[in-house]
Recover the amino acids of this structure.
């Protein structure tokens, strides 16, 4: 047993992925060959027993035109849950190719949250066509979810849950669970509702299992159970799961009636998604860029950000342009100016990164904003002084002019303090206007450090050396 | 009921936080006043029934010297789980102030994963002192966890779990759960082990509840249950939870014997932590910087990154220095050069951000690396051509020199292609050396774009205008 890999599952899964967790190329090749040979039998053997997440990764690894063919060949053995696991672009391409009847057949057996996830980005007409082919109970649940705002609790919830009245005993509840074959595929707690389906509380399954049969549910239930409105944003939902270590969260309508439940596995995806959006936004990439996008889509998406940056770069250069005379008289200034700007830009990015994250996690708020601004200003001053000395000595030695060292040192202090203040005040201001600080802070902040960097360095130099 | 807030819990929690989810200032003030008046009764009323996460946030909102006093005043009513919820720096300060006996008393009742989390960063001597005061069974479990590597599955697991032999019936298992009062506080599945405690499978609680009493556990259990070695990295664990939508994951030793279980609520924190680390690393901030750190700690932490950047800024300036003659003859070059470098830096950051994230989530791997490199190069070329035209026209108009437009346009194409290649190849190379691409890619990449930007612009200008 000592040569077990770090993580193991069935024997099949062990050969599906290499030690880094990436799909093995030979598995992909075998699947590709089976699709091209239209060999449904081999395909079922290779893919039929895989976890939906593995099927999703496999779909992404295949060429685009093979993906719908795999689904067609697998027929009813294809688990549509796999489509939840692929990139949006990939899913849309696949759904475009499949006939609506096949999609309706495929989503019929899914939990409603998965079905909504697959349907939500389809054009309205196609959506209606598919919904029409579903049993009316399923259709109503899906339509209710789809009417909720994008990225809301109502969109992420599943409509399948277990609810019992408070008067039932533990024994009665367990018997009900044993006899009922309409239960959700997985559940982690049962909900207690009154005659109008208003949520009274919840009972975790381990509590139910530990308790003797005669005990009444209302004695067991957690009546202060946290709940969320269907209209709440998914980011808010994710914060509640994180903060209170939840496994499931009941979703209620505006009259506190239970309409669904969000489970932690969906929230894990939301958390990953939200962090991903912040990372990309800070890097100047739109949140919906995906690895499977075409060159053209990606180039266009990134163009806008670069265009804004170009404008700010010209603005910074205009500041340099103000000092053309000085630059001509003393070319060392042209050589050194980018150092001041670059150091400021990097320091500002540090502060801004911390501020944007702390705002996203609600760690930074009105109550401590003043303290954090002061602290950042001090950090800027401390590092400004440190780098004033280092840069000053280096510049003075390079150009054999002590005065040049003093000038660049002074400019460095100015710019690192400006960087610190810009790095924290800009995200705070952007957040105050209810915009996403991750998306729009960067441009302002680097403009500040470029302009202040160039202006302070060349301005001080101009005065110090009497170049004007 | 229509004026319910979006999320509600007990009445108390509704007034604890404002609509953004931040702690309300007046609550913090009342707690502060109670501590300063040493009024344990009021403090218990205010804090006693709060969720541990709320107590954690409250601790962070208090001045540092009040925190240990709150814990002392609350006495046995203080739930040490709250210490898991605070920043590392805050926790260390608090633990420094508390006598080891009080800490031992406090961690005794915790799940082992929480106890380990509190103890792991303490100095060895203090750790031993606290462990010595615990019952031997608890001590052994904690010591085993603490011996596992930092950030491993063994560190994050809890040693409390429910395990039964395969021969038991459902009825026997439920009776066992009802009669046993040594069960973990919460559990989501039970594990099936042989006589040597080797893991045979798992049964989800909902499966147990749906099944009639005579059925044997071995008929129910999922024998292919995914498991993880105690030495596996927590990031790997998080990927498994995400990919396979797990709620709990059994942890085994090198002989496949069950030693603990990791639950999804801990993994949610790991995912958040890992995303946070990537975001901070990309922004040039060390992963362990926290909002509660002192000016000095933060300034020192950020200094190193800025120092490396300063070196690369000097390198880029040295390239400018090579062209001193040209800059003097044509000062417009000094004014425009930063535009080429800045645009390259931003384009490279876009590519690098996408690459670093895709590497972290294993979406980018050997199998598709070549395709992604080609795609990024094309994106660089497309945007390079677009910005060559825009920048060229703008520069030509500004300095009324058409040739300057052509020169900056050519340099722009060169630098955006270099940016694209650098942005993707550097993270891939860093990853190949098993280093974290988020931490070290940035410096290399912006050095490339600065150097290529300055060199191509001034080199082409020098040739074009015959300035050399």
């Amino acid at each position: 047993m000592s040569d077990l890999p770090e993580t193991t599952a069935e024997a099949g899964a062990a050969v599906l992925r290499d030690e880094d967790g990436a799909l093995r190329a030979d598995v992909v090749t075998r699947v590709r060959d089976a699709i091209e040979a239209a060999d449904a039998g081999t395909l079922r053997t290779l893919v039929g027993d895989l976890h939906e997440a593995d099927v999703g990764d496999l779909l992404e690894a295949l060429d685009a035109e093979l993906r719908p063919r795999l689904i067609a060949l697998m027929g009813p053995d294809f688990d549509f849950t796999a489509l939840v696991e692929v990139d949006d672009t990939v899913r849309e391409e696949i759904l475009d190719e499949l006939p609506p009847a096949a999609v309706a057949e495929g989503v019929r057996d899914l939990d409603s949250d998965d079905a909504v996830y697959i349907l939500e980005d389809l054009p309205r007409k196609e959506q209606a066509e598919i919904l029409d082919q579903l049993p009316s109970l399923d259709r109503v649940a899906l339509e209710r979810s789809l009417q909720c705002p994008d990225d809301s609790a109502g969109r992420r919830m599943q409509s399948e849950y277990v609810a019992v009245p408070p008067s039932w005993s533990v024994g009665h509840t367990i018997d009900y669970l044993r006899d009922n074959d309409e239960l959700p595929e997985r559940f982690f707690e049962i909900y207690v509702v009154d005659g109008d389906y208003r949520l009274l509380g919840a009972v975790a399954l381990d509590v139910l299992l530990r308790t003797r049969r005669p005990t009444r549910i209302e004695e067991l239930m957690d009546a202060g159970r946290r709940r969320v409105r269907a209209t709440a944003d998914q980011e808010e939902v994710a914060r509640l799961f994180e903060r209170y270590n939840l496994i499931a969260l009941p979703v209620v309508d505006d009259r506190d009636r239970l309409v669904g439940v969000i489970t932690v596995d969906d929230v894990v995806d939301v958390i990953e998604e939200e962090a991903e959006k912040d990372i990309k936004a800070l890097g100047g990439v739109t949140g919906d860029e995906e690895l499977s996008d075409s060159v053209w889509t990606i180039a266009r998406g990134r163009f806008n950000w670069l265009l804004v940056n170009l404008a700010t770069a010209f603005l910074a250069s205009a500041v340099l342009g103000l000092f053309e005379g000085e630059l001509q008289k003393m070319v060392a200034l042209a050589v050194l100016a980018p150092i001041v700007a670059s150091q400021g830009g990097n320091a500002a990015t540090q502060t801004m990164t911390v501020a944007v994250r702390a705002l996203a996690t609600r760690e930074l708020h009105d109550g401590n904003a003043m303290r954090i601004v002061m602290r950042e200003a001090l950090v800027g001053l401390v590092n400004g002084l440190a780098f004033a000395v280092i840069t000053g000595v280096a510049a003075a030695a390079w150009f054999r002019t002590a005065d040049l060292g003093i000038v660049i040192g002074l400019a460095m202090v100015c710019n690192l303090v400006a960087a610190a203040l810009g790095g924290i005040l800009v995200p705070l201001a952007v957040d105050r206007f209810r915009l996403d600080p991750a998306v729009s802070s960067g441009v302002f902040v680097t403009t500040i450090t470029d302009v202040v960097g160039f202006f302070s360095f060349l301005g001080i130099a101009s005065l110090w050396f009497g170049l004007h």
Notes: Residues 164 and 176 of chain A are 9 Å apart (CA to CA). The beta strands of chain A are 7-8, 163-164, 189-193, 199-204, 227-229, 248-252, 258-263. Chain A touches chain B through 132 residues (CB under 8 Å).
